[in-house]
From TrEMBL:
The chain crosses the membrane at residues 82-106, 118-139, 177-197. InterPro entries: Arv1. One of its GO terms (biological process) is sterol metabolic process. Keywords: Endoplasmic reticulum, Lipid metabolism, Lipid transport, Membrane, Transmembrane, Transmembrane helix, Transport. It is a multi-pass membrane protein. Mediator of sterol homeostasis involved in sterol uptake, trafficking and distribution into membranes. It is found in: Endoplasmic reticulum membrane. Belongs to the ARV1 family. Its main location: endoplasmic reticulum. This is Protein ARV.
Length: 201
């Protein structure tokens, strides 16, 4: 019933092909991963993505990039700026997800009736944010086009989130994008709040 076909064709596919189709944002691949596999890495993936984002922000801070002495690696690991960036990234991610849930619940309350519906959608959104892992290679192989790469990564993650919402709640394209736009508005509101408080974001 989830795949809307007699049989899920991805049952017979190699995991690499499934991953490639998921990267291409194919709805059937998302349905297979969400409903016909037992993946329990949502929390770990979320933490790792937040660490990648915090590292990127921490690296962009002027204080962290001034001294490149290898002896200072231990001091860098203890820097509170990194933990602050992790906290800010966590709050932004939370506000983004809350914005999506509020919009979907307001527009279609029947879709999110039970706790299991909320949990399934949350897992789908966390899994579909795997594109944030590309932040690390973008920083490691730094070049003149790094800001453009980061923008493409952001767009890719948003497209993946949209597909995850579509597949999980069996919706058309418009409502997931509306929810994502509201989530971005809420996330940017949190960023503006931090900037008014005088924090580097």
């Amino acid at each position: 019933k989830y795949c809307q076909k007699p049989v899920d064709k991805y049952i017979e596919y190699d995991p690499v092909i499934i991953l490639i189709n998921a990267i291409l944002c194919k709805a059937q691949a998302y349905r297979h991963i969400l409903f016909n596999t037992k993946i329990n890495i949502h929390g770990k993936l979320c933490i790792f993505c937040l660490l990648c984002e915090a590292y990127l922000r921490w690296l962009q801070l002027q204080d962290s990039s001034q001294n490149t002495d290898p002896d200072d690696l231990i001091r860098y690991a203890k820097e509170w700026d990194f933990y602050r960036m992790f906290g800010i990234a966590s709050l932004e991610q939370t506000s983004f997800l809350v914005g999506i849930f509020i919009t979907l619940w307001w527009m279609r309350p029947e879709m999110l009736k039970t706790k299991s519906d909320f949990i399934l959608l949350l897992k789908a959104l966390l899994l579909s944010s795997y594109g944030k892992l590309l932040l690390i290679p973008a920083v490691i192989w730094e070049h003149d086009y790094t800001p453009l790469c980061l923008a493409f990564i952001k767009v890719f993650v948003l497209i993946s989130n949209s597909q995850a919402i579509r597949v999980t709640l069996n919706l058309k394209r418009m409502l997931p994008w509306l929810a994502i736009i509201f989530g971005l508005i809420l996330e940017n509101g949190v960023v503006c709040l931090f900037q008014k408080m005088g924090w580097d974001v």
